[in-house]
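Allow me, if you will, to draw on your knowledge of protein folds for a short while. Thank you for your consideration; the sequence and its tokens are set out here:
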Amino acid sequence: FDKWTDGQRRRILLDLLERCSLSQQKFCAKQLQARVPTEAVDFTTKLPRVLSLYIFSFLDPRSLCRCAQVSWHWKSLSELDQLWMLKCLRFGWCLNFCPTPLEQGAWKKHYVEMVRELRLTRPKTPSKDEFTVVDVQPVKSNIPERKLSLAGPGMTRGKKELPPWRSSDRHPTDTVRYNYLDNDDPIEQARQA
């Protein structure tokens, strides 16, 4: 056996396993699991659920939404009300009803609705020409204030904007994440560092 090649050893082992009974194959499987370390184990399946939720509680809303796309297990963990309720209550956003125990994701839906109402946009850095103010005159508009507030800064002609916690990049490479509610502007963070 020591002098055989890898291919010859594999053929012999495969032939032996095919001739073994089911109980003998289970014994071999247990022996292999004890000797060969498992690769790519999901930590959320091995840790207690409370610890997994504690780890997920440190994530910002954008990261939680990205975690929901990893697997079904991560999706069920990242959409739990225990995580989203804390994020809503930090801003004073309370539900106007009491969700039933069977209703899942009520706090996440509420968080999404509240963020959409904010209509946040990324702050723009003005060009050098815009810093110089020659003459300031009040601007009068013919449009009533009511129509202006309905249009809102987030509305564009026929183009649907992505919610703030999602970006159009499917494979993000940003190391400084811009969370509209928790973090400062990434440019300001870079200047401070």
User: Anything to note?
Assistant: Residues 147-152 have pLDDT under 50 and may be disordered.
